[in-house]
Amino acid sequence: xxxxxxxxxxxxxxxxxxxxxxxxxxxxxxxxxxxxxxxxxxxxxxxxxxxxxxxxxxxxxxxxxxxxxxxxxxxxxxxxxxxxxxxxxxxxxxxxxxxxxxxxxxxxxxxxxxxxxxxxxxxxxxxxxxxxxxxxxxxxxxxxxxxxxxxxxxxxxxxxxxxxxxxxxxxxxxxxxxxxxxxxxxxxxxxxxxxxxxxxxxxxxxxxxxxxxxxxxxxxxxxxxxxxxxxxxxxxxxxxxxxxxxxxxxxxxxxxxxxxxxxxxxxxxxxxxxxxxxxxxxxxxxxxxxxxxxxxxxxxxxxxxxxxxxxxxxxxxxxxxxxxxxxxxxxxxxxxxxxxxxxxxxxxxxxxxxxxxxxxxxxxxxxxxxxxxxxxxxxxxxxxxxxxxxxxxxxxxxxxxxxxxxxxxxxxxxxxxxxxxxxxxxxxxxxxxxxxxxxxxxxxxxxxxxxxxxxxxxxxxxxxxxxxxxxxxxxxxxxxxxxxxxxxxx
Length: 490
Known about the structure:
Blueprint: H1 3-11, H2 19-34, H3 45-51, H4 56-72, H5 74-84, H6 86-104, H7 110-139, H8 144-151, H9 153-186, H10 188-195, H11 215-226, H12 234-252, H13 255-260, H14 262-278, H15 280-291, H16 296-321, H17 330-344, H18 346-350, H19 354-382, H20 388-417, H21 421-456
Helix pairs in contact: 2-7, 2-9, 2-10, 4-7, 4-20, 5-6, 5-7, 6-7, 6-9, 6-10, 7-8, 8-16, 9-16, 11-12, 14-20, 14-21, 15-16, 15-21, 16-19, 17-19, 17-21, 20-21
Subcellular location: Membrane
Pfam family, one: MFS_1
Keywords: Membrane, Transmembrane, Transmembrane helix
């Protein structure tokens, strides 16, 4: 081995060994504390509605804001990670989450709850979760796929444990004291962040580069000076600022990819539409069961059943879908999972007995496992990896909008009709229509791509991303992960 190769191996010594597994354990805990937390909100739905004298629509804004901010805060998290590092961002997120829930225990109106538990806790959870996954990419290279599959079990653990703990604490001490305790529990994200010490990469520099946001401005300024401008002109300064702003937007929100890449365009629209109905069962399943005579403890158990099955199915689905047999076909597996999720909602309409609802939760959990495991794998299939981070930024922001408005609009319909069945009708409509749209559109796009390839007879360098209409340049794989990859999970 050459001296340079030996030096690189020595610099990457923390990766895939030793402390990396402690970081993985911290990431599992982080996912349970952050992504798993919104699953318990339905337990408090009825109590909050009674205490604040709020309608279904008003009460559902609280979890909607939390989930929307959790998914849509990716670009802001990315900026913080680049400027201050992953460890700082995770600990800041834990602090915000804890403060948000402690403040929520003192709220006097539902509107205050939107700010404290919805915005502050949601933003804190976003910072902790996404920065935690980013640092995991630095600690694992060879075993990165396995590490991400193991880390995803944290979401399932959170789905299983949070509802049971919530119902127990709610029965014993009420929702205000429960929120106060939750604030202390979420502060453990700071402990997880403290474990995630920076990794020295092969170049000998830390994983974070200082103040990258200034680079576009510097480039534009350099271009201005190279054009012979001896003194800054006001119009040139304004043009420089516009150029820098455009470069920043293109870096974190890939509008150019959305306009040029038909596969990314179809997938983003389909998932955004799907999210209008995806979160509805999580918010309304427990209130629906309680209204139909199911005991509160057993109603909370329904969400835990979903999480328990996810623990086993989600990692298995992720690993199986990564097999080369499914390369280029994952979008159809994803559409099938979305279709199954939509069809499963009709079980609730047939009957609200506890045994029937258990069957519904089992089928829903299997479908959700497929959606959660494939969402970002499909996105990697349709977008080049060097633009994945920015493509994910636009993707998460658009889906967060529909996550925000879906439950309140459905809650308004329930308030008008006094019938919870419309929750599951709405969910099925959005999920089934999204599945059909994505499956049929990608099928048509694939046929169009094959016709183009046949006409050009380009057999030398087949593209890995068969849904991508943008030309792809071959690039050597880098041993180190991208500077920032903010990833959400469903």
